Structures are given as structure tokens and as C-alpha cells.
Amino acid sequence: MAIYSFKGHIPVIHESSFVHPQASVIGNVIIGENCYVGPSAVIRGDWGEIILEDGVNVQENCTVHMFPGKSIRFRESAHIGHGAVIHGANLGRNCLIGMNSVIMDDAIIGDECIVGAMSFVKAEAIFEPRSLIVGNPAKKIKELSDEMIAWKTAGTRLYQQLPADCQATMNEVEPLREIPENRPVQEDFYKTLQEIKKK
């Protein structure tokens, strides 16, 4: 893992969590249980403190940083989609930050909110729990249903299982040169929200 101390601060990472070897975790960072940090993610606690509570996932190519002297927290089961940038914002419990979204300084995303992909949340914006937040600048467009929150929660559980799966089965290997006859069949264990609604 690319784990770095900075000015005496050494990251604290629970042994049940998985930080990909191509991710970077720097300085004053605390990562709780069953967290996942994907390849090329950067969690940079050089100027302030970053806390990931239990069950948080920070996916591939995400950036987490802040202005000097700040402390930010991602509450339990926060889910940060591929390519998102969180700069000095606090994220509520069981929220979802969509892919390639940008959440700016001192913004507060409430519990069980969903921020749509490619949204831009302005500095100091505050969103109440269970808000669906989209756009540039991002705005609340409705309150989330129990069904949407249940779907999000199920998706996050997959990421909470992923650290153990990575630790147990991920290995650096040489590629095969042809497809083997006994190639494993990919599991199908999660449905999109649209698939669920069709039932």
C-alpha cells in the first residue's frame, strides 16, 4: 500500500479494511472497519484530519482533501462513487456520492442523501437527510423513498464485503494468453433500481 506519514501523522487503518496498492493515503487519516479504498484514490490528510467511519467506500480515482486546519468525517456506510472529489466536506451516514461529483468545502450532505453523478455541490451548502441532490449547482429535487434508500444500502453492503474478498482472493498475476475452458462464471447478485421496480 502507498501509505505515507506527514509531519508526524501516520495513517490509522483497521486491519479489516482494504486499501488498494495503487491508492495513496497520506498523513492524518483514520480509516475504520470494513472500508474499501480503490485504485488511484487519494486520501490526503496533510493539512487536516480525514476520518472514514466503518463501512465507508472510496472508489477508484477519488480525491479527498481540504483547506488547512479542517477535520472532515465520512459517516458510517458513506459511499463515494468513481472519480468523485470531496474537498473539505462532511458526509452523512449511508449517503451516496455519485460518480465524478464534486463536493466543496464546508458542505454538509445529510444522512441517507444521494448526490447524482457529475453534480457540483457548492461550498457551505447544507442538505437535509434523505435528499436527492442533482445538478450544477446541485439542488434538492425530492425526498428519497424507502425503496431507493434500501437499494443504495444493498449496494453499499457489496462494498463492505469487498475488503474481505480482496484480501482473500486478489493476487498479482501474469495474464492468460487464451480463454480456459473452465473459466468461472461471473456471479449475478445485485439488481439495478429499474430492475427492482419492474418486479
UniProtKB/TrEMBL annotation:
<dbReference type="GO" id="GO:0016740">
    <property type="term" value="F:transferase activity"/>
</dbReference>
<dbReference type="InterPro" id="IPR050484">
    <property type="entry name" value="Transf_Hexapept/Carb_Anhydrase"/>
</dbReference>
<dbReference type="Pfam" id="PF00132">
    <property type="entry name" value="Hexapep"/>
</dbReference>
<dbReference type="InterPro" id="IPR011004">
    <property type="entry name" value="Trimer_LpxA-like_sf"/>
</dbReference>
<dbReference type="InterPro" id="IPR001451">
    <property type="entry name" value="Hexapep"/>
</dbReference>
<protein>
    <submittedName>
        <fullName>Transferase hexapeptide repeat family protein</fullName>
    </submittedName>
</protein>
<keyword id="KW-0808">Transferase</keyword>
